[in-house]
Amino acid sequence: MASTLLSERDLQFLLYEWLDAEALTARPRYADHSRETFDGALDLAERVATDHFAPHFKTSDANEPHFDGERVHVIPEVKKALEVYAETGLNSLSMPESVGGAQAPRLISSACNAWFQAANLGTSAYPFLTSGNAALLLAHGSQEQIDTFVRPMVEGRFTGTMCLSEPQAGSSLSDITTRAEPAGDGTYRLFGNKMWISAGDHELTENIVHLVLAKIPGGPAGVKGISLFVVPKHLVNDDGTLGERNDVVPAGLNHKMGYRGTVNALLNFGEGRHTPGGEPGAVGYLVGEAHQGLQYMFHMMNGARIGVGAGAMAVGYTGYLKSLAYARERLQGRPLGAKDPDQPQVPIVEHTDVRRMLLAQKSYVEGALALVLYCARLYDDTLSHEDQAGREHADLLLDALTPIVKSWPSQWCVAANDLAIQIHGGYGYTREYDVEQHYRDNRLNPIHEGTHGIQALDLLGRKAVLDGGKRLGLLVEAARTAVERARALGGAEAAYADLLDAALTRTTETAAAAWSEGDPAVALANATPYLEAVGHVVIAWMWLEQVVTAHGREGAFYDGKRAAAAYFFHHELPRTGPQFDLVASRDRTVLDVSPDAL
Amino acid sequence: MASTLLSERDLQFLLYEWLDAEALTARPRYADHSRETFDGALDLAERVATDHFAPHFKTSDANEPHFDGERVHVIPEVKKALEVYAETGLNSLSMPESVGGAQAPRLISSACNAWFQAANLGTSAYPFLTSGNAALLLAHGSQEQIDTFVRPMVEGRFTGTMCLSEPQAGSSLSDITTRAEPAGDGTYRLFGNKMWISAGDHELTENIVHLVLAKIPGGPAGVKGISLFVVPKHLVNDDGTLGERNDVVPAGLNHKMGYRGTVNALLNFGEGRHTPGGEPGAVGYLVGEAHQGLQYMFHMMNGARIGVGAGAMAVGYTGYLKSLAYARERLQGRPLGAKDPDQPQVPIVEHTDVRRMLLAQKSYVEGALALVLYCARLYDDTLSHEDQAGREHADLLLDALTPIVKSWPSQWCVAANDLAIQIHGGYGYTREYDVEQHYRDNRLNPIHEGTHGIQALDLLGRKAVLDGGKRLGLLVEAARTAVERARALGGAEAAYADLLDAALTRTTETAAAAWSEGDPAVALANATPYLEAVGHVVIAWMWLEQVVTAHGREGAFYDGKRAAAAYFFHHELPRTGPQFDLVASRDRTVLDVSPDAL
């Protein structure tokens, strides 16, 4: 029986028929790889996700982590799953060989990761945060920091976190107050409280490597005074063994609506519970230069944003497959007009409105998967493209797409989960079925790693205008290459190409109209409808890419691609018309309303 | 401090400034009432809801009902709340005086009910199901059934349920298999299983009155063979005291994502646990005529559908007010362009995108409240309008609006709850705040009492076409009276009137276009987008009514009404354009897709 986590067939189509993953093996960076190593990793990921991550999906929701005032307890299945995962080497699949990784393309590791996110979003967060942490240290840490902290993370012995928010400073990082005082020996002592720390405390691994934003007293005010520190839970001796307990301790856990398998902690730094070396404060090691912390953290943050979109997609995808399986099995009612009650009931997939809900989900989740993989492919280009211009082009295009790949799946794959519940009827609303948990788990994604509204400001306030709108221009240009390929095919593909072409024109014209008064308050008043419209345009582009790839190929799989594309172009893309109209009109309704009138 | 459950000021505006509730007191049916009795009931409802329902809102979510194999346990706060509620007489506020009710307009009791639904949707379900049950028996039961079962329900001693679904028959009631065998003495014995029974078993009251759909052997097949029975949990002696235990027993409870305070049970009838009178089967009393059960049940169902919409609205409303209060208190960030980190942080209501999310919510929940009260006013007209034509007009218009008032709040007030979470950021995703529970509770509403898709078939398949489209025509005609009033005012109101007028034209034209091939499969293939578009048109109408009422009045309250109307006309109504286009084009995408291609 086919998996209800993801579709192997769809992955093969996207990786090999569309994105030509094999071509990457011609590049020096990936020279040790081949179609066989790729498929081996994908098969392994499916197997481990199915056998070790999926089985405790509901268990870790029903038995969320708890804090006894001293220690954080997590169900044992999580530790076991992470051990198996690390043993397979999948956790370092795309890490460089220099630290023990397999140096596979991100395109392949992203596809592998999706199996784990679909199987168990909560458990997968531990290793995925860890690889983001390791990637940051690889880019900006010292060799000693890499040896001390990254290697054990690659081996699966340590996990990593990112500690940005504080109770008074969530989206507004300039207001953090955690301070890092120089200890005189090149190290620092940190004092402060961090909030919303995923994987912030647990005993799943020997040690936890916190990457912490803090301010060195006397530095510049605001974001320019933020530095980045490594703060391990346990100090690490020179020989790599664990040393003293550092003074970073959990002060409590957050109890969430979903995503419960992942510990989410309030952490106190330097509260005095421990005194490493006999001194107060949590020992921290400066990463890179002082006051450059936010810039370094954004390195991780951009990766995390793509990861959030990928997770949202994966949860949407499995919800789709589960509701499809249910719709094919569940008997209920008869076709319209067939009122003879002696006729047997039919599977609900026979009801048009159920097919509508399936096709909508399919268009959302397969469109999102295409975008996630497209972005991963761009990331690989930034590392491995033959020429400098190609690397820069990929970097800028990925920069333009980052707010979309973060926000679009976070919105529409929750919508997919909503439809998956609806297809299940009352059953879908019970905890006996998986879909209600997917809906709850997925609802975090528009919040963390930059809220939906912040992605909108990033797109219309930065990506659409920086360097004369170069980034957005590259996005439109890339989509237009698909328009040209589709036009050449004629038929439905050409019709879609015309629709997309018009929407791309509106994408740039609307950004210009929004900014035509030159006033950021006016331009950005409707940034969110703009983000949502451009998101739909980008997914329409992903669907055009897919039908072009499927052109001339026969069979149910390709017919499904064509049907989902038809759904997206007929039912979804037209939504963008009124959104672009609104933004282009510089509508002032939300800008002008007085808070007192609310 | 103003309540965060509902807005008293808004209720006063809608009831007295718009719907002229006082005018009802001139009608014989409501002659005992006055503005004072109305306001007294509203104040009492607010107080009891605030003091006795709201405090255990989260407790009953965290401690859902459980079944020990014998008995169903519900936290004691629920029983206490229901006792207080019954003591106040609010449970029979709009019931006829003949059975001990206060015979107030439904308009007033609906407003009162909203306080309870906002305070605690789960607890409020017990009395609200009971009044629906009582209303059905009052309309179709015998005098003996009314005396035996309705009076104790009015007194709060018994509660009621409706038992329709079975494991193999949810939306498809023609497939129920519960059978009712004549016992020879005019009573029946029932055998079968019922599923999804809200308030299906508990010990909150002395007795439970189940209204059960079953088939009498030998009757017609399908829905034409369905009869309705009263099946009490305990038989009732002639003197009103409780007699033997009837053979209706819980077989298990459903564990839901939300709405957990309301028991939801699988009930077995006649499984043999009890043998009342020494005979097998659950004793049932036929209501009205044999084989007319579905028609009677629809009497209750239509009321239940309006109640579902009202509940969805109330949960949306309180989420709005809670997120508004949070947005006014929570300090975070600085206005756009004010980057000086030494400036103090501002309340997040100062951020435009937060105001967007508040205004969106406001437009949804206040629009939904207006519709709920408008429908209640129509219901009162069906009972009390001076002339027969007026009563019939109200009945048909209410019939047209029923799928809208059920489905629109069930969709958009969940969307409001989603925005309420988003405004709270990470906090909104935790169980420390209320909004995540509202989101979970509210998600049931598009499922029960006829799914969203079934409402769509009802609107486009019945209400738009029966009697030459008379019902939909009356809806459009009623909305056009508001268009005329608004046009006469000029300014923004006249501009909105033009927009609504055009949308009303599309409402009828699109229904005609959908049906132009005469093929139900084609016409109804896009019934759901049609439902959603017409829902938005109806809410735009409700906003036009409100700004017309607010015309010329000054102050923050009226400015708020104007701002929310502007939001709805600028940001929301335009969504309907592409939806109408799609339906009118008789798009076949979802009709034609093969299940194999999904």
From TrEMBL, chains A, B:
Acyl-CoA oxidase/dehydrogenase middle domain location: 162-261
Positions of the Acetyl-CoA dehydrogenase-like C-terminal domain: 486-593
Domain Acyl-CoA dehydrogenase/oxidase C-terminal, residue spans: 292-458
Superkingdom, natural source: Bacteria
Protein keywords: FAD, Flavoprotein, Oxidoreductase
UniProt cross-references to Pfam families, sorted A to Z: Acyl-CoA_dh_1, Acyl-CoA_dh_C, Acyl-CoA_dh_M, Acyl-CoA_dh_N
SUPFAM superfamilies: Acyl-CoA dehydrogenase C-terminal domain-like, Acyl-CoA dehydrogenase NM domain-like
Annotated ranges, domain Acyl-CoA dehydrogenase/oxidase N-terminal: 43-156
EC number: 1.3.8.1
Requisite cofactors: FAD
Listed GO MF terms: flavin adenine dinucleotide binding; short-chain fatty acyl-CoA dehydrogenase activity
Family of this protein: Belongs to the acyl-CoA dehydrogenase family.
Protein name (record): Butyryl-CoA dehydrogenase
Organism whose genome encodes this protein: Nocardiopsis aegyptia
